[in-house]
UniProtKB/TrEMBL annotation:
Subcellular locations according to the entry: Cytoplasm
CDD domains (alphabetical): Imidazolone-5PH
Residues in Amidohydrolase-related domain copies: 68-407
Protein name: Imidazolonepropionase
Keywords: Cytoplasm, Histidine metabolism, Hydrolase, Iron, Metal-binding, Zinc
Pfam families attached to this UniProt entry: Amidohydro_1
Length: 411
């Protein structure tokens, strides 16, 4: 008789498994479990007592000695490729200036655009590599990287190529999002419609042709783009079969989420000012609510996203770092787990779902990653903890014991 382990490359035993296979309603945990991997995929998991006989000579066995394993973490909203920094604006805000005032007086995103345009591809790569490495060392195996600090075709393409290079050199899946409609570049000052025309008629076709965008995003906001402009960008993305997502309801309620729902958006992100109608639209469309506690914290926002209503309407909630130089210069998803609980009162189960299964869904990669079930990629984080809530409870001592990307140990 051939033992099943003839086809197993790696087998974890003595592990507790937070499979996250029930949409975040529980850890869907298997205590005292085992998990087998072949060809980079999960091929068996269950209670150790049910483990079929296996050939110890064929398989590399990893004894977890009671540690927990979870899906590799997924940061579904980042802007880690950029030039310069904005510490000067941080000081201005501490003296009383608001994020919007700084943007309106020519600072904010536009000042990062200047630094990003001036940077070479190698310089952008070197600084982004450090940020990605920090996230990876905390257990991240997939993330999203947005463009949006170039705001002309060459500079946007430069950013997206850096994102490609990062994925080639670190064992992390990178989903690229084109965010040409992030802010108005100085050369289009007072003519936002003309800039949106450029985004729709030249930039989106060009990035689509070069296969540089897995999604298209818009900053729909008073200091960003209007509903009509957002819709024009969505239509251009749709014409190229690229899914959309939106930065919406961060500083005011423009209804960007409801519009995005009509375009079957993957997610709407920020959402502090989301209305009841916006929540209902999310429920109907099935899009993910991506909450960004780092930006909430760093901008010292006081209005909370409507979390209870999202829960009541079974809207899936993801949590991300929003790592960027202006509103969230924070390259730590472990800190976001903590903040999701302390600032937004998510349960540790909801927070962990927010950086695994629901984050995968916000990126449209939930058929491959985000849950530990048979058939999924073996992207697995092993943690030196006694219970999953510890991932949210303590911050500053990295509990990551090992990390596997498609079945290969990378940390
Ligand atoms: O997600 N809201 C717009 N974009 C970023 C901030 C970008 C910046 O300030 O550089 C965000 O918060
Ligand atoms: Fe953002």
């Amino acid at each position: 008789m051939t033992l099943p382990s003839a086809n197993w490359q790696l087998l974890f035993i003595n592990v507790n498994i937070a499979t996250m296979s029930q949409g975040g309603t529980s850890y869907a945990a298997i205590e005292d479990g085992a998990l087998a991997i072949n060809d980079g995929k999960i091929v068996w998991l269950g209670n150790k007592a049910q483990l079929p006989d296996y050939d110890t000579e064929q398989v590399t066995v990893v004894d977890g000695m009671g540690k927990w394993i979870t899906p590799g973490l997924i940061d579904c909203h980042t802007h880690i490729v950029y030039g310069g920094h904005r510490a000067n604006e941080f000081e201005l805000r501490l003296q009383g200036a608001s994020y919007e005032e700084i943007a309106q007086s020519g600072g904010g995103i536009v000042s990062t655009v200047k630094a990003t345009r001036a940077a070479t591809e190698d310089e952008l790569y070197a600084s982004a590599y450090k940020r990605l490495n920090a996230l990876h060392n905390e257990g991240v195996t997939s993330l999203e990287i947005k463009s949006g600090y170039g705001l002309d075709l060459d500079s946007e393409v430069k950013m997206l190529k850096v994102a490609n290079r990062l994925s080639e050199n670190l064992p992390v899946t990178v989903q690229k999002t084109f965010l040409g409609a992030h802010a108005l570049p100085v050369e289009y000052k007072d003519d936002a419609d003309a800039y949106i025309k450029l985004v729709c008629e030249q930039m989106i076709p060009a990035v689509a042709k070069q296969n540089l965008a897995d999604a298209v995003d818009v900053f729909c906001e008073g200091i960003g783009f209007s509903l009509a402009q957002t819709e024009a960008v969505f239509n251009a993305a749709k014409a190229h079969n690229i899914p959309v997502k939106v930065h919406a309801e961060q500083l005011s309620d423009l209804g960007g989420t409801e519009l995005a729902a009509k375009y079957n958006a993957l997610s709407s992100d920020h959402l502090e000012f989301l209305s009841d109608a916006g929540v209902k639209a999310m429920q109907t469309s099935g899009m993910v609510a991506v909450l960004l506690p780092g930006a909430f914290y760093f901008l010292r926002e006081t209005k909370l996203p409507p979390i209870e209503m999202l829960r009541e309407n079974n809207v899936r909630i993801a949590i991300a770092s929003d790592a960027n130089p202006g509103s969230s210069p924070i390259n730590s998803l472990q800190l976001m787990l903590n903040m999701a609980c302390t600032l937004f009162r998510l349960t540790p189960t909801e927070a962990l779902a927010g950086v695994t299964c629901n984050a995968a869904r916000a990126l449209g990669i939930d058929d491959k990653v985000g849950e530990l079930v048979v058939g999924m990629d073996a992207d697995i984080a092993m943690w030196d903890i006694e219970q999953p809530a510890e991932l949210c409870y303590q911050f500053g001592v990295n509990p990551l014991a090992a990390l596997y990307k498609q079945g290969k140990q990378v940390i």
